Amino acid sequence: MLQYQFRDALKQLRSRSGEITQPPYEGLFQEKLQLIGRLVLLIDAIQNDFDLGTFLKSFSFPRMKTEGRIHSLKKTSISVRLPSSGVITFNFNQFLPLEFYSFVRAGYKKLSPQLSCNLAAYCMEFGLYEQARKEFQS
After folding, report:
1. Residues 17, 28: contact at Cβ < 8 Å?
2. Where are the alpha helices (DSSP H) in the chain?
């Protein structure tokens, strides 16, 4: 499973653009740059909506056997207050693609068209075609 630090990847891609913007890599570079840009926008929107109170605060991470309320969201991580007291922090790169998708969908009652489009692009990149179809239809 690939794990990304999206902002770092975006910086690295931009710094190497001279090396990989020539054929046959040119199209692939632009595609990856767009995907990373969408993911950065998606995480920024989630963080902003959390701060505004429009992103639901309940959290479930079954693989890590963790449930609780979101304590804070940062650009690279999420902190969860556990029912038994204490706070645990997960980096976004610890999520599997389907887990991240479920996290985003569970946080919103209804996604804006822009968020839905960004989430669909994320799903397509990671092979979650059924979920991408649902996002395109919503």
Report:
1. no
2. 6-15, 17-20, 26-52, 97-107, 113-125, 129-137
Tens of pLDDT, residue by residue over 86-133, are 898 988 888 888 988 998 888 888 888 888 888 898 898 888 999 999
Rounded CA-CA distance 14/10 in Å is 6
What are the C-alpha distances in Å from 45 to residues 9, 65, 67, 116, 135? 19, 26, 23, 11, 17
pTM of the model: 0.71
